[in-house]
What we know:
alpha/beta, Rossmann fold, globular, disordered C terminus
Amino acid sequence: MTRLHLIRHGETDWNAEGRIQGQMESVLSELGQNQARELQKNLQAFEFDRVFCSSSTRARQTADLALAHIDQPFTYLDALREIYLARWEGYLYSEIEADDPVALNAFRHTPDSFDVEGAETFSDLQNRALLAVNEIIEQHRGQELVIVSHGAWIKSVLCHYEGRPLSNFWEPPRMHNCCHSIVEIAADGDAGNIIRYADLDQGF
Length: 204
């Protein structure tokens, strides 16, 4: 078995104000930094072989805090970045709701039909995420691996291993900030077991 530990970044200033991030840069809020430090207490129980991290600043900050005890270099990959939302990025959700309510409704309620010019669809995101995951697994079979990434990115991977259609993408549990999910991957590439789906004790 290969074990994947999927960790979402801590809260950012943009999370707190309801601003769409996508692949634009944002930084951890004070709460987000504290979330990452709290997560480190749980992560010290694991012996990780490799750490992979989104190249986004918020993910890198989270990895630096939550995995500060890891004495090895991290590998930063653009393929682990969040869904690209094109012209939406940087705007408040409330502004997009006023400007493009039909598309925002699709994003929230029928994600399999979401299609904004220049943006990734959820299918695009999942394909990109799984290509990255499969390459990582192929190179590190049988190891304990960490991927620090983003909510929708992680959700797309878990949907695949659960056999959940993209139409049900946003069904609970929610990918709260600094959630930690663990998936065991069998030698044939199938999910042998999802042994932890985020942190149920953190109230989501």
